[in-house]
Amino acid sequence: MTPLEIVKKEIVDLHDFFTEWFNGTVERDQLEPRFLSRLHNDIQFIPPEGLVMTADIIREGFARGYGTNPNFRCHIRDVDIRYVRHDVVLATYTEWQTGAAMSADANNARRTSVLVEMTEPVTWLHIQETWLPESERKAGSFDV
Q: For residue range 77-90, what is the model confidence (pLDDT) as tens digits?
C-alpha cells in the first residue's frame, strides 16, 4: 500500500470507530486497541475552538463519551498527503459531522491536519482542526 492508502485507511477507520464509540455500538474494551494505543504519549490535539488537548485529556473525554451521542455520524473526505519525510507524514482531510451533540452546530464540517508516524499501527503525533468556512459547508453535503 502507498502512504496515501495507508493514511487514508487509518483516518477513515479511526473516524468509523469514533462513530461506533459515541453511538455505543462497539464494546468498551475497544477504546485502547482501536484508538488510545495509536496516540503518541506527547500528542497534541487542537480542536476548532483552539484548546490544546493532551493524551490524558483525550483519554478522559472519550471514557466519558461512550454511548452519549447515538445520532452522531462522521464522513471523511478529501484525504491528501501534504508532506512525507522518512516515516512521518503530514496529511489533510475534511470531516463532515451530523448529529454532533457536543458541538455548537450539530451538523458541522472541519478541515483537519494530522502528523502521523508510519508505524504499525500508525501513530498519531499531532492533530489540528479548523472549521470549514460557511461557503464550503453550504456547497458541500452532510450525507454520510
A: 999 999 999 999 99
Alpha-carbon dihedral of residues 133, 18, 66, 37, nearest 10 degrees? -120
Q: Are β-strands 123-131 and 39-46 bridged in parallel, bridged antiparallel, or unpaired?
A: parallel
Secondary structure element (H or E) that encloses residue 84, with its range? strand 73-85
Beta carbons of 67 and 23 less than 8 angstroms apart:
yes
What is the reported pTM? 0.93
DSSP string, 104-131: SSSSEEEEEEEEEE--SS-EEEEEEEEE
Residue with cell 483519554: 59
Q: How far is CA 45 from CA 58, 82, 127, in A?
A: 8, 19, 5
Q: How does residue 143 score in pLDDT terms, banded at 50, 70 and 90?
A: confident
Place of cell 495509536: 38
